[in-house]
Amino acid sequence: MSVLTYLIPISLFLGGFGLVAFFWTLRTRQYEDPKGDSERILSDEYDDHPKG
Amino acid sequence: MTVAPAANGLAPSAPQTGEAEHVSASACPACLAAPSAEALAKSGDLRGARIMLSLPTAHCAVCITDVERELSRQPGVRSARVNLTLKRVSIDAEPGVEAAPLVAALDGIGYEAYELDPGLLSATETDKRGRDLLMRIGVAGFAMMNIMLLSISVWSGAEDATRDMFHWISAAIALPTVVFAGQPFFASAWAGLRHGRVNMDVPISLALILASSISLYETAHHGHQAYFDAAVMLSFFLLVGRYLDYRTRAVARSAAEELAALEVPRATVLRDGAEVVVPVGELVPGDIIRVRPGGRIPADGTVTEGTSETDRSLLTGESLPVYAGPGVTLSAGEVNLTGPLTLRVTAAGKDSSLHRMADLVATAESAKTKYTSLAERAARAYSPLVHTLAFSSFLIWLWITGGDVRHAINIAAAVLIITCPCALGLAVPAVVTAASGRLFRKGLLIKDGTALERLAEVDTVVFDKTGTLTMGAPTPENLFDLTPAQFAIAAALAGASSHPLATALAAAAQARGIVPAALDDLREVPGYGVEGRLDGAILRLGRADWVGAEAGSVTATHLRIGAEAPVTLRFADSLRPGAEAAVTALLAQKKRVLLVSGDVEGAVAALARRLGIAEWHSGARPEEKAALVAEMTGAGARVLMVGDGLNDTAALASAHVSISPASALDAARTASDIVLLGQDLAPVADAVRISVQARRRIKQNFALSGLYNVVAVPIALVGLATPLAAALAMSASSITVSLNSLRLK
Fold it and tell me: Domain B478-573 is of which CATH architecture?
């Protein structure tokens, strides 16, 4: 059972990583225009960074 | 010794920098001024104009790039960003940039755009609440998944030290989660308790707190069962219900705000001989205002110059235009039809007749008894029952075991968790979300959360005439009375005016391929009609008294050719598309349908007969409409009022539930529960049908979650409920309820 001492922290870390990523998407307002975002990827206008 | 060199080192450098500054300043005084001017411009930039435009036709990736590219090309525009979900574009521009040229530019590349008043779009506040709820859902979901993994190993037989360790890890995840994710419930429960009410959030909060603390106690004493997973899952499912509820409201609010923001109210004021455009709110009595033909009159006033006709159908329901000339008093909300008018404002803003009508609405609304929704009724029955059940099971087990408090509390907590209102919390929001999404696609905007439930109870439907069942746009009725020669002359006269009757006549002539006769001296006499000459004879088309004809009771215009007897052309309002279908469908649903209008008897009776409506009231004043609705409500009827005008506003507010078209006045839209977004009236009947179905689904959902409780509660009461059973019951009932809601057709 000593393997648990590695596995539990690893699983918690991975879960926590996902949670932090979710916070980041919220913070950067990625849920405000879901329809527009799905269409924007089809745009042929090349941009280095998303427009503000 | 160590300080001196440092001081020496600094000393020569100080005058140098001072000199450098001095030199640069003296060499170029403008350079010094420039940065400050730049800074000033920058700070002004921060306050720069933020313009919002509504883009109803945008729908694809190409639309986004087209609109954004075209707008960034316009002078003064810094950036533009399309939000396709809301069908809006927000433009960051330099101060002084107006919306009108941007709208014209978008029109040029084929996109309809309308200016929105950004002050009325309070998106940021609601966004924050939505993001907050989403974050709590995320945290609860993360915790739920991790604890569930740990719980599965406990259920499948982990023992002693391993089980204790898993319980401790679960506790470490669950306790902060419950504190964070449970806040909306704790806050609402506390607010309810402080006002002496026990709402649905009280048993929820109690279950969360009791489950967490009992599990912590059990873990510390090497107990077998911990309910951490149940506590976290409870908060997750309930938060999902809350979020659905919030989303429905937010979508409705944002659409309703957009309708209000579309009317940017402005008035043209004459100040020191110059025309200035100001917001309507800044008008004061004594101001001289100009109203162009086609414009809405912004404040009550007396005409000082010009003659015209006004359309007051939104205020009174009468479809006949009214003469306006010097000395005539006009009210805010009337539409100027033919000639430009100059008015002296007598009452503006809060004192205007528009706002006095709003007071009437407030009275009607306060008289309206507060509707108790199905969810509130369920909570009222549910909360005391659950509390009694849990408390009596505690007492009974205390008595059975002879004072084993730990065991008794365990049973009581199990009862609270098993009876968790997870499914109850999802029962209403899931159905309302599904139903309002469906209705939104049909062009109906549900503004109020309980509107669907109230709509389902309706047995009487009251329609307004002008602007609701009809478009408020006339079509000529008796063109066969005209000889081809007369028709050609009438078409020529009508073509010279923008009066609605004239444009309708000109359009009818064009549709029948009539070529307008060539006339001399064609001129419009604002407020009266159009005059022309043919071979020396005077030709007139217009008001009865001006033409020399007999004035009738229906909407009409009159044609006189020289000394011949005048011909009267009658007009009927064209029906709104879907009006016939809506009335027929409602009658088929065995509803009592009434037509109540402020218009004259002839016009109302004709329309009622045409649509097959058996009961009608004509010439009804606003108070009479409201009184009629109140009287029917008093007799036990549940009234649905459909109306658009200011004269309907009080009736809309006092009805059980109300619908108004998007073309209605802002006051009417505010007073009604549902807004019809399109032209078509047919969705009204659909809405009634869907609401009945939605109400049935809500009741089914309550029955389903009740059924789970009936099975699970006895198991909990006898002390056989394990955390596994609680988890199964909870998720199974929540999923069943959600699936049942999606069956809505």
Answer: 3-Layer(aba) Sandwich (3.40)
